[in-house]
Amino acid sequence: MAITAIRGFNDILPSEIGKWQFVEKMAREVFENFGFSEIRIPVLERTELFARGIGEATDIVEKEMYTFADKSGNSLTLRPEATASMARAYLEHQLYTFDPVAKLYFIGPMFRYERPQKGRYRQFYQIDAEVFGVGNPVVDAEVILMLIHFLRRVGLEKLELQLNSLGCRSCRPRYKEGLKADLDEKSFQLCEDCQRRLQSNPLRIFDCKVQTCQDAIADAPKVIDFICDECASHFDKVKEYLGIAGLDYHLTPRMVRGLDYYTRTAFEVVSYDLGSQNAVTGGGRYDNLFQEIGGLDVPGIGFAIGMERLISLLPKDREFIQYPHLFIASPGKETHREAYRLANQLHVEGIRAEFDYEGKSLKSQMRRADKLKARYVLILGEEELKKGRAVLRDMQDKSQQELPMPDIVETLKRKVFGH
RNA sequence: GUGAGUGUAGCUCAGUCGGAUAGAGCACUGGGUUGUGGCCCCAGUGGUCGAGGGUUCGAGUCCCUUCACUCACCCCA
After folding, report:
1. Domain A326-417 falls in which CATH fold?
2. What's the Rg (C-alpha) of chain A?
3. Which CATH architecture fits A14-171+227-312?
4. I need a surface site. Which of A23, A188, A194, A417 has the fewest CB within 10 A?
5. How far apart are CA A68 and CA A360, in angstroms?
6. Read out DSSP for A46-63?
7. Reported ipTM exceeds the 0.95 cut
8. pLDDT at residue A1, as a whole number
9. Domain spans, chain A
10. Tell me: the pLDDT tens digits for A172-183?
């Protein structure tokens, strides 16, 4: 094999594509019912946008970005996520002059330079939805509701919605100090990584899988015990609105998020069928992002769904492939031309028809029709064709009928479209 | 970036203690039926044994190096 795709970049083959098309179609349908509009953003942005938006100290910016200089020396980066670009577009095109509230969604590939593993690839696809311009907790709930509705629509069950509040710029630093003070006393039982995290980002210790670290942090203070009155009230309202909608959630005080811009509401949907990378989707509120990249003070909230992870959870028994309605078998040179002509006519009529390209035997053509799972086969026999007739075979019940050629298109339409 | 595991036909795999021409099933092509699919039967195509080096009379098998893939860590969707 001469040339292969590069590490972490995958082909999505025809046998899989039906699932992708289905998921994208459902996302568009559901999100648009909730009043969201699609936006399309560039694959490349100035590196600065992500460095400032996502945060210089995050793993994404520090070590996971595809960054390079273009021919004029500008530092460009393949987008590692969509939110910063969408916020940039909102500001750049001043969408707030039409309506301060913008409800946007985006579907497309993201790029992060990480070692691939199950559910993680260097090019991976996200479905992203964001609401800009509303700080009211009712949209936090609405966005989560839409997300859960979408996941159910595509057939996912056994999901767990995890919910937390991360506080804001005024109360989170206070919490970090409190946490740090508590853990400083037990730092001897923290692993090497967590010793480092204690200084750089103590919240991350919650994610550590080392048992002694988990023991150390078990009775550590929680974010929600430290958040300010405004954040607490916001969080209460979110929970209240979710309750009104009858949505179950798990409070996960230990869930933290890796991007700097998150504030207040944070959520994840996890599935235990996914392996180590168990988050199907994650999101939250980010009331500081806009100021980081542009100066305007615009609140935002949204989520990103990992499409590969979502697709791996789709019900297995569902059929996503469209098989041909008809295979036209043409044993003999005379009939081959008629097969070609008829197939083209049927395509125009909306019937998926295949025919033999290589002058193979009838047996061989029948085998191919069977392999392609064609529902019907039209056999263009030399003798029948001379009389202006052909044989239509139903591959499921094996029944055959001989029809006059002029009736064939209408007969097929009736059988295929059922009227 | 770190760790572990795996590399033999398109796919899933077997290949004994280092021994002769590297096998099976599935898939593919053709035939058994001169014009009828699936099941069955027969035949055929298909291999740099991941790559390079070493040990040996002899390497798919042992050793070294390297590459790829997979899973996990870090972190995220």
Report:
1. Rossmann fold (3.40.50)
2. 28
3. 2-Layer Sandwich (3.30)
4. A188
5. 53
6. EHHHHHHHH-TTSHIIII
7. no
8. 56
9. 14-171+227-312, 326-417
10. 888 888 888 888
Distance CA A329, CA A384 (A): 13
Nucleotide B41 C1' to residue A403 CA (A): 35
Is nucleic acid strand B under 7 Å from A228's C-beta? Answer: no
Strand B contact with A400 (CB < 7 A): yes
Q: Is the CB of A40 under 7 A from strand B?
A: no
Residue A2 pLDDT grade (very low, low, confident, very high; cuts 50, 70, 90): low
- A260 in contact with nucleic chain B (CB within 7 A): no
**Using the CB atom, is residue A300 less than 7 Å from strand B?**
no
Name the nearest CA neighbour of A377 among A325, A414, A417: A325
Does the C-beta of A182 come within 7 A of strand B?
Answer: no
A169: left (phi over 0), alpha (psi -120 to 50) or beta: alpha
Residue closest to sugar C1' of B70 by CA: A117
Q: What is the per-residue pLDDT across A95-140, written as a single tens digit (0 to 9) for each?
A: 999 999 999 999 999 999 999 999 999 999 999 999 999 999 999 9
pLDDT of residue A143: 98
3-state secondary structure of A140: helix
Q: How far is the CA of A398 from the C1' of B24 (A)?
A: 35
- Give, as ranges, the nucleotides of chain B with any atom within 7 Å of a protein CB: 1-3, 28-33, 35-38, 68-77
pLDDT at A219: 80
pLDDT tens digit sequence for A46-87:
999 999 999 988 889 989 999 999 999 999 999 999 999 999
Token duo for residue A189: 């039982």
